[in-house]
Design a protein that fits this description.
β1, α3 and β2 form a beta-alpha-beta unit. The protein has 259 residues and is an alpha/beta fold. It has a 7-stranded mixed beta sheet with strand order 3-2-1-4-5-7-6, sandwiched between helices. It is globular, with a radius of gyration of 17 Å. The chain has one domain: 3-Layer(aba) Sandwich (Rossmann fold).
Length: 259
């Protein structure tokens, strides 16, 4: 599978329409924002933050707000994503391949959020990201957790894998990163998602188009349920700000330093 086949571009419009209110994107954005604020707080003004695989640009927009003393830009392999991100984040966004980055040794911080699982060779991609960073630069990374949660959603999203913390740490070390902090998150969502995934089957045999329809349904906002899940997940950003390691979750967050 080529890098441009690693995601279904039809999802960009669907995600852009709901991600500002949807509980999952809302909770993830809060967590990424609190960690990014910590990472950039000690950097000199004029530092550079690059989001690699910026998608529709909602997180990138938050990084523009957080990195008010820095320069923020985004890169994505899909022109469709770049078109959304430019309008959403109002910062420079370019089409580019993470395996062969056009900027080398220029970024103080790189963020890549739910990107690695879409790519067959995660180590090659991480080494490409490593090249973007200055010596001692920081990577902030999120990926989905636990193959036990594999379902039609992963099929529709064109995932290759979900990670354990041990697997993610090993991949990062193999790619010349030193892990400073790693934790699972979306802890409150785990039992709900586990039960739903068990009821729906593992998903590996499902037709991809059927999977796309089912995954699209999960992007529907159900008002009361959506607000309840926001409330359940809200406290996690405070725990992660304190660098606590949560025992379980549907996603993983890592902060790693270029060695």
């Amino acid at each position: 599978m080529t890098e441009t086949a690693s995601y279904d571009p039809r999802f960009f419009a669907k995600i852009a329409a709901v991600e500002e209110k949807h509980f999952w994107f809302y909770a993830r954005s809060r967590i990424i924002t609190c960690i990014a604020r910590q990472v950039v707080s000690g950097l000199r003004p004029g530092y550079r933050f690059v989001e690699a695989g910026c998608g529709t640009g909602m997180v990138l927009r938050e990084m523009v707000r957080v990195c008010e003393q820095g320069n923020v830009s985004g890169i994505d392999v899909f022109p469709e994503a770049v078109a959304f991100a430019e309008k959403t984040a109002l910062c420079p966004v370019v089409v580019g391949n993470l395996n062969e980055p056009t900027i080398v040794g220029e970024a103080d911080v790189v963020g890549t959020f739910d990107v690695l699982e879409h790519l067959a060779d995660d180590r090659t991609v991480l080494r490409g990201i490593n090249r973007i960073l200055k010596p001692g630069g920081t990577l902030i990374l999120t990926v989905p957790a636990h193959m036990s949660l594999w379902s039609y959603f992963d099929v529709a999203s064109r995932h290759y894998r979900r990670y354990t913390a041990t697997q993610l740490e090993q991949v990062l070390r193999d790619s010349e990163f030193e892990v400073e902090y790693i934790t699972e998150f979306m802890m409150g969502l785990f039992p709900i998602l586990w039960l739903v995934r068990r009821a729906s089957g593992r998903g590996r045999e499902i037709d991809r188009e059927d999977a796309v329809v089912k995954a699209g349904n999960e992007l529907t906002i159900v008002p009361v349920v959506n607000e309840l899940l926001k409330l359940i997940l809200r406290w996690e950003s405070a725990a992660i700000r304190r660098r606590w390691r949560l025992p379980i979750g549907t996603s993983l967050l890592a902060v790693a330093r270029k060695t």
